[in-house]
Design goal:
2 helices, 8% helix, 6-stranded antiparallel sheet
Length: 156
């Protein structure tokens, strides 16, 4: 599980270099996507909230993951719970853009997947992507969709 300290490290780095410089065999973001399953989001007087499951496939260079995410529209990433038995060098976090800041309409969710190589824990890779769905709680069935990462970087 991602701790608050790890979450801060998730988004702040001292030295970022292009992913291709770390490992040129990493796939391009367009060839890799995550499955969002059972998306549910709604709004109340206190704000908007979400919950969903997300899975990422294993590729030749990227470990798989399965996670459960829930939170509200506080505007920053919240750690998700990893639901599989993979290495502890992985973390998933999600953020729901506050409704008043979302110009795209609907519910805009952003997800970040970070993992380290088991043998080189000081080097990590981070994939981030977002999607717009709906506030469907109580008015529509649970939704499934994909998120394709649009930002990829590595840190050494």
């Amino acid at each position: 599980m991602l701790t608050l300290t790890a979450l801060v490290a998730f988004t702040s780095t001292t030295f970022a270099i292009p992913l291709s410089a770390l490992n040129p065999r990493q796939p391009a973001p367009s060839t890799y996507s995550w499955s969002v399953i059972n998306w549910s989001a709604g709004c109340a007087r206190a704000g908007c909230y979400y919950d969903f499951n997300i899975t990422g496939p294993c590729t030749s260079n990227i470990p798989s993951f399965s996670a459960y995410c829930s939170g509200n529209d506080v505007g920053y990433y919240v750690a998700c719970s990893i639901n599989d038995d993979g290495p502890d060098t992985r973390g998933v976090a999600a953020s729901l853009l506050p409704r008043e800041q979302n110009t795209e309409g609907g519910a805009r969710i952003s997800v970040s997947f970070r993992y380290s190589e088991v043998d080189v824990p000081s080097t990590y890779y981070n994939y981030s992507g977002s999607a717009v769905s709906s506030f469907n709680q109580f008015v529509a069935p649970l939704q499934n969709f994909t998120i394709t990462p649009t930002e990829v970087f590595g840190v050494a």
